[in-house]
Structure formats: structure tokens, C-alpha cells
Amino acid sequence: MLVGFQTMKIALAQINPTVGDFAGNVGRILEFSRRARQSGAELVVFSELCLCGYLPHDLIERPDFVERNREELERLARQIPLPAVVGYVGYARSKTGKRAANCAALLAEGRVVFEQQKMLLPTYDVFDESRYFQPAERQTVFPFGGCRLGLTICEDIWNDKSFWANRLYERDPVAELIGQGAELLLNLSSSPFTIDKRAVRHDMLRAIARNYRVPVVYVNQVGGNDSLVFDGSSVALLPDGRVAAQAKAFEEDLVLFDTKIGAGDVRPQPSGELEAVYSALVVGTRDYVNKCGFSKVVIGLSGGIDSSLVAAIAVDALGPENVLGVAMPGPYSSEGSLRDARELARNLGIRLEQIAIGEIFQTYRAALEPVFRGLPEDVTEENIQARIRGNLLMAFSNKFGSLVLSTGNKSELAVGYCTLYGDMAGGLAVISDIPKVMVYELARLANAQRPVIPAPVFTKPPSAELRSNQTDQDTLPPYEVLDRILKAYVEDLKSAEEIAAHLDLPPELVRDIAVRVDRNEYKRKQAAPGLKVTSKAFSVGRRFPIAQKYVT
Asked: Which helix (H) or strand (E) element contains residue 211?
């Protein structure tokens, strides 16, 4: 039992909301609330902006959207079967500044009994909350069930001076609430997954619990929303930092935290970061496809490692009956690659269609011959093949209402080793934030669960097979080297000189890669949305100009 603490059973309700789906989100909140009450909970806590989904972006600028949040919140308060803390878009209390606020409301006795605005509004990486919200001017504790609650929203807990060497904000909402006598900290979050973030987040929460000697209840959103994937991993920590309750990662869940005994439900967690990344890709793919109104996907299967991994992820996300593979051998495609694509499809249990593009390619060449006469073949002819395949995949998409999953990885996208309107065509770039070396690691993980990717796929040299005897390493350094350079340049923002010195690589090699990254920004701006899993993805969180001449 927590000494001097009013006993309470708190349910951590980890749900997967959809942006703008008020009816569906309210339904999930009510369903989990009923389950919480049946489990004996006296308070149920949901995630940040769960009522409308996180983040609605410019929907927040629509007055009717903000008003709908308020209407649904009041309706929910009248129906909810037990006291609940719910996140929503509310009206700011300030007379100046933004009209909207990121809010949490305590619902009880059929009404809203307390509201708290978010104070710290992140503006880094994928976040731009100050664009939409007015920050809270102060935080206030609220008495509930004989306990003084300190209610915070996501970023409000990410500024502990005892944990962070360099803080982003002058104020610390947690310290202010503790100063007012808060005995229990609640945090509603929509914290996206990235590699290693779960560990950092846990260490930070544990530091807060230990530092202030209070229990910490953290409830995070789960599921995919556009490029972001939320891992859930909601947790309740005791004042000594021990885990009292924890929800599943990457799944909806409801766990109970009993403050009387200082314990609750503890679910198993991913065994490592690679398993977490794979789960994130599966959840992100499933939710992107379903929340965008699709049910089926189509994938170009080349017999290579990238398309093989994307197919395995798609089957885990949607089921084999909803995945169509299309093999499109060209004049330079090897029989081995076609054989591997067929074997992969059989192992996954998906339908495979085959359309040879040789004759189509010759028709293109014949049409262009009068204009190209006398000019040597180059990347133009290679790209035509890729664009033929992109056209065919989009035809399948149009005819059958399926979403095309593009199969390019982060290493290729970084240096422009991809074809606009060709292999970049599609509605979702599943592995666009996965470096090539990690692609192999994830593929091995997928095979460890069930052997579906043929063995030759792992051993043959990577190749686009757009010309005779082509391999990726004809124009790129080995991926083991390339990926280290790219992480340092793209994610860690190191200069070419720093990278060359640190990795003991030729400076001209590193500068060449850096220039390729910068010069191919125009391609990435036209790429399909991708699922973010690293600290810096080629997405909304990385904002570099296209027309620029700065050289690192």
C-alpha cells in the first residue's frame, strides 16, 4: 500500500482513435469505460486528444471542428459510466493568442468537473503544436477521491531538470504541480514511436516518480496515424520507480493499477528494438490502409529483399487474402529473381500475377527512337522500365481499389537511387525510414517467426536489374558504409568533415553522399508518405528546402 495515499483503482485505457471519427472514438471510449467499471476501476484515464484523434493538424483551425469536440465531450460526460480523464481540443482561456487549446477533462457525475490545458507545446521534429494551440498559463491540482491529482498532457512531463541536461522550456509543469501538493501525477500522451524512444520515455518517467516520490500514471495512444505510429506502452510507476502496471505495446489494451496494493496488470513487452520496429511497421501499415478507406494492397514483387519484406509486413498487417503481388520481369530480370518472387508468394499464401514488360519497353523505345537517335543508352532507358512497372501497379490499384505499397528503403531514398513515377509510385512507402542493413535484419526476424522469404534473397547482391549484370554497388558504396554515413548526416546532423573523421572514411566519399542527399530533396518531396520509426525520417519532421546551394 502507498503510505498516506487514498486508495484507488485506476484503469489505463489505451485505445486507437481515428482523426475526426467522433462517433467511432466516443464508442471506443465508452466501451473501454464499461470494461474498466466491470474490472472494479474507480477512475479511467485515456490518451491525449483521444476524442478527436491526434493530431488533427489544420482541422483545428476550423471553428466547427473545435465546437464538435466540445459537443461530443459534453455528450460523453452524460453517458460515461465512471469518472474518466479524456483528451480533446477545447477553447483557450486566454483572451489573446490562439483560440484552441490541447485539453484534458475530468468527467464525473454527468458533467465536466475539471479541465486542464497543455502548457508545453512542442515544435520540433514532427510536432508543430504552437501553430494551433494556446499554452496554459498555469497548472492546477484537483482533488478527487481523497487525492490531489496533478494532470499533465504529453510534453508537460518532458522537461524535468533532474533528467534532461538541456531543457527546451523554462517552466516545468510537473514541478509546479508538485509544489501545489499533487499526490498522483496523471499524463495523457500521444507520443509517437521511434527506435529507442520507449526506453528513454520509461527512464524519464521513472526519474520523475523517484524524484518527487509520487506515483506516475502515463497513458499513451496506440495505432497508426498517417506517417506516425504510436506504440502505447502505457504504464503506472510507484514512487520508487518500479512498474506497477503496463499495457501492451502496439495493441489496444486496458490495465488496472490498484494503489492499495501498489500493483496491477503487467503485460509482456517486445523483446528488443528490432521486434518493436517490425510491430510498428505492421500496425502503421494496417491503420494507414484501413483508416484511408482501403482493405487491399498491391505490391510489385521483384524477388529482392525490399519487396519481400514489404510483402511479409503487409500479410501480417492485412492477411494474405488482401495482398496481391505483381511480378513484372523485364529484359534484364534474372530467372532466379522471378523464381524467388513466386516462392515468396507461395510461402505467404498471396495471389501473384505476372506481366512481362519486355514488349512494352520495346514499344517505348520505338516511340522515342526518332528523338533519341544517335544518343547512347543511359539512365533514361533504365527509368523507363521502372515507370512502366509503376504504371502497371497503378492500373491494378485503379481497377481493384487496392492501395499500392511502394518498396523503397531509406538508404535508396536518401541518395536518390530510385525513380520518380516508377518504383516510387504508390500510396504508402512502408520501409522508407528503414536503412538497407536494417531491411535485412527485419527480414531475418520475419523468417524467424515463419520462413517465408527464400534463402537466395538474402545472399544475392542487391540489384535493380535495369541493365545487364547491374548491382547497387556499381554506383553506391557498400550499404554497411552508406548507412553509417546517412545516419550521421541525416539523423545526427553531422558535417561531412566530422563524419569522415569519426568513421575514418575518405572525405570525398562522405561529401559525395552528402551532396546526393541534398540534391535529391525534390524526389523525396514527391514520394508517398512513409512510416516513421527513426529519430529523423524523410517526412514532415525534416524540413529542408529543395532549391538551395548550401554545401556541408
From this structure: helix 197-212
Low-confidence spans in the chain with pLDDT less than 70: 1-6
Give the per-residue pLDDT at 291: 98
Name 113's Cβ contacts closer than 8 Å, sequence gap at least 6. Answer: 106, 107
- Alpha carbon 421 to chain centroid, angstroms: 24
Architecture of domain 9-269: 4-Layer Sandwich (3.60)
Per-residue pLDDT at 2: 54
Domain map of the chain by residue range? Answer: 9-269, 276-350+397-476+520-524
Cell digits of residue 414: 536518401
Backbone CA torsion sign across 479, 485, 486, 491: positive
Residue 474's pLDDT is what?
82
Asked if 538 contacts 530 with a C-beta cutoff of 8 angstroms, the reply is: yes
Sign of the torsion formed by the C-alpha atoms of 125, 54, 446 and 340:
negative
Percentages of the chain per state (helix, strand, coil), in multiples of 5: 40, 20, 40
Is residue 532 annotated as part of the catalytic site, yes or no? no
Burial class (CB in 10 A: 0-12, 13-18, 19+), 367: exposed
Please tell me the predicted confidence (pLDDT) of residue 461: 87
48 is known as an active-site residue:
yes
Tell me the three cell numbers of residue 347: 510461402
Q: Which of 9, 48, 103, 487 is catalytic?
A: 48
CATH superfamily of 276-350+397-476+520-524: HUPs (3.40.50.620)
pLDDT, tens digit, for every residue of 269-296? 999 999 999 999 999 999 999 999 999 9
SS3 state of residue 427: coil
* Complete DSSP assignment for 6-71: ---EEEEEE----TT-HHHHHHHHHHHHHHHHHTT-SEEE--TTTTT-S--GGGGGSHHHHHHHHH
103, 147, 154, 418: the catalytic one is 154
Residues 12, 222: Cα–Cα separation, whole Å = 12
> What is the distance, to the nearest Å, from the Cα of residue 73 to the centroid of all Cα atoms in its chain?
27
Cell of 6: 487514498
Give the span between the Cα atoms of 245 and 237, in whole angstroms: 7
**How far is it, in rounded angstroms, from Cα 281 to Cα 68?**
32
Cα separation, 22 vs 210, whole angstroms: 38
pLDDT of residue 471: 86
Distance in angstroms (rounded) separating the CA atoms of residues 262 and 273: 29
The single residue of 118, 248, 296, 523 carrying the catalytic annotation is: 118
Q: What is the pLDDT of residue 465?
A: 73
User: DSSP assignment, residue 119?
Assistant: -
Nearest to 191 by CA among 171, 165, 221: 221
